[in-house]
Amino acid sequence: MEGLTPKQIVEKLDQYIIGQEKAKKAVAVALRNRLRRIHLSEDIRDEVAPKNILMIGPTGVGKTEIARRLAKLVRAPFIKVEATKYTEVGYVGRDVESMVRDLMAVGYNNVKHEMEEQLREQSVPKVEEKILDLLLPGTGKKEKKEEEKENESPFDIMSFSGSPDDAQKFIEQQNEKLAAQQAADEADAASAVPNSTREKFRQMLRDGKLEDREVEVTIRRQNRMPSMEIIAGGSLDDLQSGMQDLTNILSGRNQKKKTVTIREARKILTEDVLDSMIDSDKVADIAKERVEQSGIIFIDEIDKIATKGGTSSGRDVSREGVQRDILPIVEGSKINTKFGVVDTTHILFVAAGAFSLAAPSDLIPELQGRFPLRVELESLTKADFKRILLEPKNALTKQYTALLETEGVKIVFTEDAIDRMSSLAEEVNSKSENIGARRLHTIMEKVLEEISFDADEHSGETITIDAAYVEEKLNGVIKDQDLSRYIL
Fold it and tell me: How much is the pTM?
């Protein structure tokens, strides 16, 4: 983020998202303001509150895609959550504070990964020695002893007071100890593999000649206490995982042996060595600072917890309660996590929703006030659908072409075919539910259904998809309105 201006952020997003310039600009400015705030003096920095954003628009126009691409673009701690996953305090389910705990976990893992990359080069010699110890047990001990001997002084000055007879006895005892030590060294040398053999194996290891040889590695499970969140409304999987961790800790089963190839052993041992080289407390402190100063939480489907007319009943009874629970987090509060207490005052919140059944005014007034920037995303037109099919790096036409090329089938889309599919997407969206760009997925699947099914029979062929082909595959479905409701 250091070198990205708002204009450059928008250009990056343009590679994947068509249109929605207002939303892109709002997000780009909000991200840039995070960096600007960090460079302010301390007396002003704490007074600058983040300008949270509320994105409003129909499904399939790019709200979630903007969040997904931001996650890959920025190095700031980022997490995307769905408002519908949370419940009011007192109900079974996840409490809203868990979004901050999840963000802190993301920040911790990011910092840890950065430190691992910095130390990876230093870990290579240590990992190599561990692999050689697995291949040639005993040789490593000999080398360590030789190093210790080299570091030892050849003479030991010892004080003695006593009669000449006592001195003679003392000398004899020392000579016996020296003889015993020499005998032990000779026995070790006889039983150990010669040092030259270890060096030969080291060279073979570096040349990649031993990658498929199998060795037995001891894997250490992380000693992590299960989170108390499993008791306060976590999922069944969280409960099962937490109980398994607790069982391992109480039974002492923190290690297990596994037979793997040298290639796999190197990965396991590298992680083990890097883990021992990293100070977890330092990682937690850096991550906490990043989360508090530049963390971003994207809350999707926020319209699903809005209560129309301000009333809720039955299964929707906890909707307004979730809003009340989210409010203090957005306003700024201190949340306890396993990495320390996190202050949410300067975390940027971006909320999004279709608001097809409810309006932004149906949110509680206090929560509305905490999202001062509102951006409306526009519905997609035929021109937008055409650009979506052709321009993005992950365009659908490029995806399907690459998929079928794996079986030797080359697909060519003509311009009139792209034009016809774009027209159909706009037409079906206008007549039935408007699902935005997701309509193109259903159209492309229907058009290429037979080719995908019989791809093995067309290996080596070039198939041209034109407007007539698209019309043939979709014309009957489009005309039958009842059928199109289920297929397209």
Answer: 0.74
